[in-house]
Structure formats: structure tokens, C-alpha cells
Amino acid sequence: MGSGLVIVVYIVLIVGMMYFLAIRPQKKQEKKQKELLDSMDIGDSVLTSSGFYGMIIDITEDTVIVEFGNNKNCRIPMQKQAIVDVEKAEV
């Protein structure tokens, strides 16, 4: 019975280590990304996951329309998850 208890303790330790090394940091990153996406507003400068910088000109529930460069014809709708960084517009 002693060796069975040791195996159970090892399994519990491994699961605990996996939680603190993999799952917990991922949950913190997801929470940070959600807060970032919730803080977006029209006029904010954003960095997309593709590496392009642009300005938000419209926001819907799960998409944003981003204008790139000074060319007013370069407006692209994209999923909010494609935004990796937001710089708030100066008031």
C-alpha cells in the first residue's frame, strides 16, 4: 500500500506543476488580452498580429475596421483577436 500512495502523490505533484507552469500563465495572458480588446475605442492606434500599424475607425461586437496609412481607401475589417497592442488616442 505504501508504493501506491507514493504514485498518487507523484501524480498530484505533476498535475500541480503542470497547472502552475502551463495553465495558469495562459489564463493570465487570456485575461490580459480580453482587457486589451475591451479597452479599444475609435481613434486608437493598434498593432495587428501581422505587424501592421493602423487606426481604428469603427468597432462592432467582434470585428474592427482599421485604416492603414494616410490613404483613406486602405480600410480593412478584421477580427478583434488580430489586435495585439493598443495605444490610446490623445484627447
Give an overview in words.
This protein is an alpha+beta fold. It is rod-shaped, with a radius of gyration of 21 Å. 41% of the residues lie in helices and 29% in strands.
Strand content: 25-35%
Averaging pLDDT over every residue, what do you get? 89
Shape: rod-shaped
The strand count comes to 5
Query: Going across the major beta sheet, what is the strand order?
Result: 4-3-2-1-5
The parts where pLDDT drops under 50 for at least 5 residues are: none
Task: State the separation between the terminal residues, measured CA to CA.
Answer: 69 Å
Main beta-sheet annotation: 5 strands, antiparallel
Order of H and E elements: HEEEEE
Helix/sheet category: alpha+beta
Describe the secondary-structure layout.
Blueprint: H1 2-38, E1 45-48, E2 53-59, E3 63-67, E4 75-79, E5 83-87
Antiparallel strand pairs: 1-2, 1-5, 2-3, 3-4
Notable features of this structure?
91 residues; alpha+beta
